[in-house]
Amino acid sequence: MARAILCPGQGTQKPGMLKPWLTDETTEFLIRTSEAIGLDLIDLGVNAPADTLRDTAITQPIVAATSIASAMVTGLMPSIGEEIETIVAGHSLGSLTALALCGALEPTDVVVLARHRGLAMAQCAKEAPGSMTVLIGPANVSEELLKEYGISAGNINSSKQIVASGSVDAIATLVENLPNGVRALPLPVAGAFHSPAMMGGQDAVRAACNALTSHISPVTRTLISDLTGQACQPAEALAALPDSLIQPVRWREVMNELAARGVKKAYELAPAGALAGLMKTDHREVLCEKVSPQR
Q1: Any idea which residues carry the catalytic annotation?
Q2: CA gap 45, 18 in Å, rounded
Q3: pTM value > 0.85
Q4: Residue 6 CB: number of other CB atoms within 10 A?
Q5: What is the DSSP string of 4-24?
Q6: In terms of DSSP H, where are the helices of the chain?
Q7: Neighbouring residues of 229: CB distance < 8 A, sequence distance ≥ 6
Q8: CB 3.0 to 4.6 Å from 9: which of 52, 94, 118, 221, for a disulfide?
């Protein structure tokens, strides 16, 4: 029976999220990686307030590092001779983390890539301010409805949840005119991610990805793309990252694929909670467990 490992994305960050995952092994990884990106990941992950963590250029590397640290502590990193069939998927930023969890890239390389991606997206957000809002209802708000307001579907998360991504004014107008029964919850992010507003960051992300192409290692774990919901090769996933900046995350399709492959148990890496909730909405037959240091 296959298991799945799910890697969360931006918007899941919270103050102190790294503290439970500090061990000798993870501290060594975090110190080495902090030097590589010029940020003190341990201080950020333990002491930084919510406002600091909302900065995209900081959020992305610290969330990726926290996810990887939680995988190290809970024994979910790839290992030689692994007997359990394992499928890995990541939501948006988590698709970078997934490259470490499937064994394709070294953990430090993934956090460096997250730093480059975060810087590129932060610059786009500065040039074209925007926001993202989760829309929850008895059924998904259609992508067509969002387009009427000049808004993109940033994430298609489940049969009952979609994330609107666009300008602050356009999102506000949409929220004022939502269909009955649909709730709006703003996301703690600093831009209109997975929309055309991120187009200016593609070249920088492409350069960062190209620098890692020769670093890809053979893998034994299956990787699922959050753009298609289908299995893909790590090289394909890496090459798709620049385009993913302006395309929607199709997490509903990812969950459908995991269920179709017979997955009955999934583990959501820290900072966990969002993906477990989505799985419960659409596929109760898949038990999704949030990792804890006691596992």
Answers
A1: 92, 194
A2: 5
A3: yes
A4: 33
A5: EEEE--TT---TTTTGGG--H
A6: 24-37, 41-47, 50-53, 56-73, 94-101, 107-127, 143-148, 168-176, 202-210, 234-244, 251-260, 274-282
A7: 250, 252, 253, 254, 256, 257
A8: 94
Helices (H), 196-233: 202-210
SS3 content of the chain, % helix, strand, coil (to 5): 45, 15, 35
- Token pair 């820290």 is found at 270
Q: What region, left, alpha or beta, does residue 2 occupy, with left being phi > 0 and alpha being psi -120 to 50 degrees?
A: beta
pLDDT in tens, 84-138: 999 999 999 999 999 999 999 999 999 999 999 999 999 999 999 999 999 998 8
Q: Residue written as tokens 């590589």?
A: 36
Please report, as a single letter, which amino acid is at residue 137: G
Over the stretch 246-265, which tens digit does the pLDDT of each residue have? 999 999 999 999 999 999 99
| Pick from 46, 86, 90: nearest CA to 64 | 90
Q: How far is CA 122 from CA 2, 19, 186, 199, 270, in A?
A: 37, 26, 18, 12, 23
Q: Are strands 86-90 and 161-166 parallel, antiparallel or unpaired?
A: unpaired
Q: How would you classify the pairing of strands 3-7 and 131-136?
A: unpaired
Q: Looking at this protein, which amino acid is placed at residue 121?
A: M
- How distant, in Å, are the alpha carbons of 17, 139, 171, 279 from that of 142? 34, 9, 15, 20
